[in-house]
Amino acid sequence: MSDQPSLTLTDNGAGALLARGAWTVANVELLERICDDAVREEIGPIDLSHVTALDTVGAWLFEKLARRNPDQSPETTLVGVPDSYAGLLAEVHGLNRAESSARRSENSFINQLARSARNLAADGIAFLHMLGAVSAALLGVLRRPRSFRLTSTVYQIGRVGWQAIPIMALITFLIGAIIAQQGIFHFRKFGAESYVVDMVGILVLREIGVLIVAIMVAGRSGSAYTAELGSMKMREEIDALSTMGLDPVSVLILPRVLALIVALPILAFLGSMAALYGGGLVAWLYGGMSPAIFIARLREAVSITHFEVGILKAPFMALVIGLVAACEGLKVKGSAESLGQQTTASVVKSIFLVIVLDGVFAVFFASIGM
Amino acid sequence: MADQRIAICVRDLVVGFGERVVLDHLSLDVREGEILGLVGASGGGKSVLLRSLVGLLRPRSGEIEFPASGEGEAVRRGVLFQQGALFSALNARQNIQFPLREAAHLSPSLLDEIANAKLEMVGLSAEDGDKFPAELSGGMTKRVALARALALDPALLFLDEPTSGLDPIAAGEFDALIATLQSTLGFTVFMITHDLNTLAAVCDRVAALADGKIAALGPLPDVLASEHPWVKAYFHGARAQMLHLGA
Lengths: 370, 247
Known about the structure:
The complex is a heterodimer.
Chain A: E1 6-9, E2 17-23, H1 28-38, E3 46-54, H2 56-66, H3 74-77, E4 78-79, H4 83-93, H5 109-143, H6 150-160, H7 165-187, H8 196-234, H9 237-243, H10 248-285, H11 291-301, H12 304-330, H13 336-367
Parallel strand pairs in A: 2-3, 3-4
Antiparallel strand pairs in A: 1-2
Helix pairs in contact in A: 1-2, 2-4, 5-10, 5-12, 6-10, 7-8, 7-10, 8-10, 8-11, 8-12, 8-13, 10-12, 12-13
Chain B: E1 6-17, E2 20-31, E3 35-40, H1 46-53, E4 61-65, E5 77-80, H2 92-103, H3 108-121, H4 138-149, E6 156-160, H5 168-185, E7 188-192, H6 196-202, E8 205-210, E9 213-218, H7 220-224, H8 229-236, H9 238-246
Parallel strand pairs in B: 3-7, 3-8, 5-6, 6-7
Antiparallel strand pairs in B: 1-2, 1-4, 8-9
């Protein structure tokens, strides 16, 4: 509508104003300026008889002006109100009376810090809770082996283990090849190329093999677990299980966690072999070291201890990934957005914990001399 | 009813999907300032009619006009979807502010005040504005969705089963809320409903959709007296009879 709104002084008494035009959301910028100017002066009765259109925004602005002089009742402040607007103005008159609480302060730095700390503590407790629940479910299975969900576990092993082999082997193969290439390139400067075999062997078997595989599994299978459990939670499937007298932990979570614990060491072993193969291939094609020499040097350089150190870590990493995925999955609330958030959180947290765990193991093995 | 101006004028509307014709030369007038309730069989084209009216479906032929709005002016309309359709990434207040924010440049403080005013209009409190859609109960979701539909003070309000999924008390309150807001703000309501109580309590006129056409139209007593077989079955079936006996 083209009716420009305006608010002008008239000579009908102190501060008497006349409103004209369309007081609607379309003109809100102009209206806000008019009202800001008006509140600097004393407000008398406002004549609304020339207002051509009014919506909630306009009515609210009139109401705000009227509230500027508290000693007068609204009937005397807003005069000449056309019948068609009376209902709306009366409705708006009763609104926004409650003092707004100071909700802005919630976003202060200190509050955010406190909230993060609280979340961290809650996460820790939820993790321990899940560890306890899974242990209890495992004990229940040991007491009554027939309640074990073998089919589900085997299916999950197939999903997170068997189907993951090609991508895991490819990536660890490439990592092994890259380590060997970099080693040869830099060791060549001081004629220590043959030590590349030691470096690749020890690094891959002790650390890289299992770590890369664990990170890949966290991204590939941990996220899938969280998304599955989260959407089951959203659609009340988990509640449905509980009402049938079944424990969701032993039906859904235990098979998944056990599958990871079985699959991750196997994947770590295959990954380490693929990395050694990649390293050997690069040593042969790029470094000119024949496979026979590579294998002979590898036999001297690594002992079974290195392999044990690597593979021993795998089940613990699997446990951490599985538990974090389950915790985050059960934290999903009703919305699709929350599902996405928890899936992201699951991957980030499990990768972080896997690396922390790796560090703890490094300290442990160093102190027991392995 | 003094005001006989027409808000929505539908003429010979045909809507179909592939081989199937859902609306078959349907004509309907919705008067300005009335609450029109539309009943019909599930899958009978009620939602298709509503989606055609709000422009989500393109009709094969026929005309939909909004004579009450000026020439070349966009129709100011609000839609309350059956599940609320609140944006899950925004809290209740931001959901209400969203259309306002798109329509005009309001200052943040005025945006908050308007959103809080709308929340109070639909019977919620300003504190409820901080909640996210996932934290709202069914009744509250409908109320926030209604507040969002009313954000731009529409002249036309479309409601898709506003009371479905609510308990009778909440449904009754919601009916009363729509009636109150309609009488204060003076908009026209086009409502799909299966709730016979809603039809009786708030609707000025009732339209029955059967076989892709309007089979009966008028105040509820007239529609009840209709001889159309589907309309008879709908209003005089066992479930409907129970309500009549109870009342």
